[in-house]
Specification:
The protein is of the alpha/beta class and about 160 residues long. The protein is built from seven helices and five strands.
């Protein structure tokens, strides 16, 4: 990993830090139990040393898994952690609370989940105030949604 970072790689991920419900990630043997599991704390230190972010898949977005995410954020303040698909089965308010508390946390927003998944309890518009509050702490994936839906409207 350090060899690749020295060659110019600009981040790590998506790392399966925890997954109970993902139809794919929850079944892989190499997933972690939490963001503080196994070698992840060491990897966080390497990311801090090379000043690169790490993208973590974390589900569910509540309970022990989020407690461990917060522990990782607190113990590794120089590591930028990106919460992958933070909007999946999560509320804008939960994301807001995490971003307010942890300046080294960024949120990856998968618009396709919110707009196209019938299990989503939110609308795209619900997340706009949080995105406006933290414009530099969001990474959005809209290409997937654009290719799947012709009903894209401006949400700002």
């Amino acid at each position: 990993m350090t060899h690749n970072l020295e060659q110019g790689y600009f981040g790590l991920g998506e790392i399966a830090a925890a997954s109970l419900y993902s139809p794919v990630v929850s079944k892989v043997a190499w997933k972690g139990e939490s963001p503080m599991d196994g070698y992840l704390p060491d990897i966080f230190e390497i990311c801090a040393k090379y000043k690169v972010p790490i993208l973590l898949h974390i589900d569910p977005p509540n309970g022990m898994v989020i407690d461990k995410l917060e522990e990782a954020l607190d113990k590794h303040p120089n590591t930028i952690i990106i919460f992958a698909h933070a909007n999946a089965f999560n509320s804008p308010e939960n994301i807001r609370k995490l971003l307010e508390k942890h300046p080294n946390l960024y949120a990856d927003f998968y618009a396709g989940f919110t707009a196209l998944n019938p299990a989503s309890t939110n609308k795209l518009e619900d997340f706009v105030p949080v995105m406006k509050q933290f414009p530099d702490h969001y990474r959005c994936k809209i290409a997937d949604m654009i290719s799947k839906s012709s009903r894209i409207n401006t949400i700002t």
